[in-house]
């Protein structure tokens, strides 16, 4: 069955979908309706449910799975789903939440195994032990959390997907620039965003926690490294160096790093993070853009629209 | 005896002075000389020592105490000390380093006692215990460190002087705006700069530590609060709230706070810190400025020069 | 009777309300309607009036008082009033405009008396006479105008409320920092915003005057001080000093002050103004925010949302 | 006799010169010397006076006229005057200060006459009377003051030179864009910088007055217009409009205008001011630049260096 | 017949109009409608066409000419056209597209002739030949293209209208500042925006080309000058100088010029361009603004609203 | 023989050195001297030549080779060479300029061969032909020019060294992100900086050309691509795409790119350029920095100082 976001205007819908958001409203004439954001693995689409009742509001809430019949139509430059029928999934239909959310292409276990390989390559015992300790502490969440609530790697297992991709790029850089310290760089890549498992609320319908808002993933991670060092009784300069890599990985004070990178690997970590995030956004947008056309505007890329050359088959 | 910075041009010098900085150089004709920054409690002054030898370099190093004879003269808009005689202090003369460095006006023990009074006013046990714990851990350093290497409160016991002054202002604000939470605000004031005791190298001839450069006093303090909470087994939201106050007290990302203030007392803490630092700089500069004239330019105040009205007796 | 903004969704309305704004429009189907902003002392609420006629447009204009029956409902994250009946107030019902607009908590006469106390404390005759002269000239307006059209102290007598609160803070600062010149600071506080009585259109339904747009309250006040000095034949430097305090109180050129503060009291005036405005905004927003939640975003506070700690009872 | 700045390296000097600045200093070996900035109508040049005595310091002060013998040499990319003999002018030699300061090319009386022509073209009586009144009040100073202490039109009568040049450009613009109001634009041009006669200290050796620093020429002029209107009992909107033109002529808050231009002629006034100032700076720098080379860097032009094409004879 | 934008609310419409834009949509109740932007020489107006069919969509597309009956009404602060009848123009009615689009006031042939006069005044053969060559190559488009898609000179023949107006201003400046090189300045003015004929899609319903987006008119023109020089075998510095004028005419890197002006005429070209564009925008906005009122906000003028004085008849 | 920059303080010098810069000056006592910057392959060092004559000035000019005897001493935190003897190289000594300038580690022929390999991997004939054509046209210069006058790759063959390093990184990225178009990216990397061969004056003692200042290497290269396409009669979109890559490779308007990257490979090109330049600067600075210390400040890296961890052996 084709994913909901891959259907063209006029195509019929008969899909199980997950309610991602549900917002109540009234029309200008005063009749109540709901705006639903419905999703499956292919992404999400908006739909309006007219003349709603209290019963509707009770049934159709975020994280509910529904069966929807209808049709795709076009509204203000975007596809919408025109609902003709809707009902909650019956228990015996057995659809799982995980069947309906976008996720990394590779299984999370494979990603974790790839990540582990990089641990084996580390030579500095302090760095390796610290990194392994923190990985273990949050292993389950690291394997399922997204790397962000939107923009890039914002899907189930997006965090580990991002980290593994960065590690591969880090490895290539270490080969091209042998002065780079592999241990510091790999550990920096692995740790830099793990604070997200406390900054964000979970793998699905992700929002910011209070702690995420007030402290942020950078600060959270710096204190985690401190705590791990104490638990492992590690005292070398490695602790401070890894804290600095995490601290500075946004590259500039304006972007939330209280210190700019001041260690060679910290500078490179910032670039690796940036390249991987941007390639993720660019690929997603350009996949939907035919050759010879411009993509939709992407806010986190300075609101730029990218062109796909005609000869880029 | 008049302090070295209070002497006028032409006045004779016969003072014990502390060498704050000593820089070797050669004249354009190739003869070696040294530039000394010499200080006593009143502040510091520059002096040149001509035709220096290896022996001079051995004797006249930073933190050495010397007896200097000479005269004040004027050079490029500043006073200088023209050295006529110089020798190291003899042991039996018994001058202490502490006799020659500027310090807070009140004794540090008095300042600490004043600070303690604010602890007693706290009602929230978690906040009080956390604050007391950290205060105790670093008590000696808190009582002697400056608040900065230059600009404001950059003298012995400058840190506690700044904190006590801020606490008094905080108390006045709590009386005027009763919605402010006294416990949060007092604790925030006490803790906000304690990270300086690890960021800076000591009470005298202060410079930045490696950790100070790579992590900074804000991050250092946030991890200290975490550690204290663990040691005291405190788990309430107070821990995170105090971490946020420390984290955000510079007010903006560009100024080194990874999060802007998002709690009422955090916003006010930023203002109190600012006012107290600026009053300290303004008072110091305007004390030297006669009515009807402009002060020297102050770099941390956007390089402004301040006017002292003629009628401000 | 409960204020209109304190009613919950579903509660019935039968209130006298003041029309603050009235905007005509047509639905997408072409039928005319009006959007009304209705207010009482507790604040304001939006309402739609459907299928309106010329008669409606004639009756329901800004500053008209109406009696409205209806119900509170929820629309796009905000409460709205669903109008079931509406009619103009009858003369014999005797509701006054002043019964329906938010105002300072203390009566304006009390505020003026508090302000006068600070005049008595002044020692410099020139400063005192100048300040008193201008106060007298605009006394009525100073007692009723808001300090702004929105954001902070934007209610009847908001201007004097703001000034008196600032004076109290100024007094506390003078006690903590005795180098501050009380006369200059008090006069600066009293005068700094009086230009608003020409910049703004009035105490109710306040907008900007042409002169307010083209010259602004800062410039207006500087010329007023000039005029007052001429009328009182005062020639001392005090005139220029007070002009500078008014001129520089926004703190920076980008914020509309053609000169940055260059007098100690000018610098402090800027801080006092800021703290009092921010406390006013914060208190208003956090009063509506339950412990453990974030407030609505506040545009003039860099669009920040503030957190109210769970333990902040 | 050739002007001092037009002599080449190695050429002999025997000139009457005005001391513009005189700074005392000591060499690294402790012998006193003075740095003199000496000028005649062609501009200024630096000179060192070695082994100076108290007598020298008494004789060679700013605004003293001296007779200097010596030679031009080259030092760090600039010409200097090597002094071989120096003595104060004798009274009977009768050199005037005005013989030795750069000035506008046209006599100040001619410039004033040209300016007056524009007054005659004004049709609006209020605008004409206001402008004439202020012109009269400061006529002497307007005819001799520079327009700035450095950068552009920084010579005797530079202010009126600048204004007349702007009026001619204003006239050309009124012809090309007939919607421009001639009265407003001419008056705005004439008045915009007259505040300089109180902001600056005088026609020669010009510095900022206290009032110039604390209020600035823009604010000074706005209050002058107010005062003039009162004296002439003019009440129309013209007063406010002219105040707005003066207020906004720097174009942006960051550049010291508390309001951006909001009247058509105010916007154009800002451009005319800019073009005339820049042409003045460009012409001065490029006159010294041979075809095929770059000029010296000009700080007020974003530190740019301008190229003179080889074919620009 | 009065132009569509000059009719008041309530006035009847019976006009031939050009469809400038046509957007399909559905109401919240699901019935399809179209939003049309309709224009004649006086400007454009919005209209809604309710309950549309496929037939409507086929007939009413951009660049179609229609006859519309209806009435002007007011909606959200703007006039709209309420359509009562609409039909495509019949061939025999013979209305031309050019009858319904705004255009420069003077005929394009007159503008071209005026422009040619400036070519005759040029003395430098290289500059003249280069300019003439490029003018000829794109002559037709230069005579019909707008200078921009919106904001200023955004009408048929707007480009040449802008250039001719700038040339006149350039001439006035050359007379006032005789150091300006007429040849360089005139050629710079003529060439600076010709790249628009490749950056933009055409004279009507103008949008950006792919090349316009990826390279921009500045770069396009610089390569055109290179090509022209090669075709004419011109090798002098004039080529580079003209390229620099085009390159730098936006004045700053942030505004799309890879180099700031570094030639006297380049600096002035930037000012002339700015003044002419702003006068065009100001005149258009203020024509619609009665004396004593503020214009609509203009986004490219920092979103400012301009005041028209009451005495500006 | 040890390179001049690798000698310690006090070590004797007897080296052939190249004069990189020679500046004449006079001491404060009026005796002439010269400041020489002398270099060999290891880098450069400053030296003073006292009491110089016209003969000295004639002999010791930039690009002259000299034999110098003397000693290394320390002056203001930097090493200097104290000259005891100096004479011009005798012809028979046969030292070549190329023996005394720093250069890429690999021979330029090897670098060119490595670069050629990437041409072979290209599949798109248009892109390959265009790139090959331009490479050929400037082959000699590409093999010897530096990539910049200072900061990074500022040595002989620095340009091709930078390009080859970037190509290797580009290849690694194409493997990790298969959506990248290899042809576009490789061609973009090869072409992006070739404009430097016209922007800069040569391989040694490099400065900016007039054309380099007025047009810049970006614009120069865009017109070169245009010309190449015409000569090869290539008309596809590839021409514009490569022009866009060159145009946008500085990433932002503020940094001299008139267009931001709008093609996936353009975005990545900007990152590759940045990483390779920064690794070059970081490696050079950190090679001189012992573990546990901070490097000198690097201006093009926001003036940051980088820390080398103690455990980074």
UniProtKB/TrEMBL annotation, chains A, B, C, D, E, F:
GO biological process annotation, one example: rRNA 3'-end processing
SMART domains: HDc
Stretches assigned to the HD domain: 162-278
Species assigned in the record: Paenisporosarcina cavernae
Coiled coil ranges: none
InterPro entries cross-referenced by the UniProt entry: HD/PDEase_dom (IPR003607), HD_domain (IPR006674), NA-bd_OB-fold (IPR012340), NA-bd_OB_tRNA (IPR004365), YhaM_exoribonuc/phosphodiest (IPR050798)
Database matches in Gene3D superfamilies: Hypothetical protein af1432 (1.10.3210.10), Nucleic acid-binding proteins (2.40.50.140)
Protein name (database record): 3'-5' exoribonuclease YhaM
A molecular function GO annotation: exonuclease activity
Keyword vocabulary terms for this entry: Exonuclease, Hydrolase, Nuclease
Organism superkingdom: Bacteria
């Amino acid at each position: 069955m084709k994913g909901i976001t891959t259907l063209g205007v006029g195509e019929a819908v008969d899909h199980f979908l997950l309610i991602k958001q549900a917002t109540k409203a009234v029309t200008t004439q005063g009749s109540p309706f709901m705006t639903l954001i419905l999703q499956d693995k292919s992404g999400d689409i908006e739909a309006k449910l007219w003349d709603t009742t209290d019963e509707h509001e009770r049934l159709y809430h975020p994280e509910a799975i529904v069966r929807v019949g209808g049709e795709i139509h076009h509204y203000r430059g975007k596809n919408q789903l025109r609902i003709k029928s809707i009902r909650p999934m019956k228990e015996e239909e057995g659809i799982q939440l995980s069947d309906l959310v976008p996720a990394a292409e590779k299984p999370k276990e494979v990603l974790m195994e790839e990540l582990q390989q990089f641990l084996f390559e580390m030579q500095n015992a302090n760095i390796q032990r610290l990194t392994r300790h923190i990985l273990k502490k949050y292993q389950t969440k690291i394997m399922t959390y997204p790397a962000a609530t939107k923009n890039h790697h914002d899907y189930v297992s997006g965090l580990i997907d991002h980290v593994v991709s960065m590690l591969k790029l880090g490895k290539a850089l270490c080969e091209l620039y042998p002065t780079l310290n592999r241990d510091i760089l790999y550990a920096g890549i692995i740790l830099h965003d793990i604070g997200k498992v406390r900054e964000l609320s979970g793998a699905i319908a992700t929002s910011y926690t209070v702690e995420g808002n007030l402290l942020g993933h950078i600060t959270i991670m710096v204190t985690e490294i401190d705590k791990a060092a104490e638990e492992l009784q590690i005292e070398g300069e490695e602790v401070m160096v890894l804290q600095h890599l995490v601290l500075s990985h946004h590259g500039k004070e304006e972007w939330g790093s209280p210190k700019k990178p001041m260690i060679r690997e910290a500078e490179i970590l910032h670039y690796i993070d940036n390249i991987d995030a941007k390639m993720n956004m660019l690929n997603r947008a350009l996949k939907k853009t035919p050759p010879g056309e411009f993509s939709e505007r992407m806010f986190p890329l300075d609101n730029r629209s990218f062109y796909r050359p005609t000869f880029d088959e």
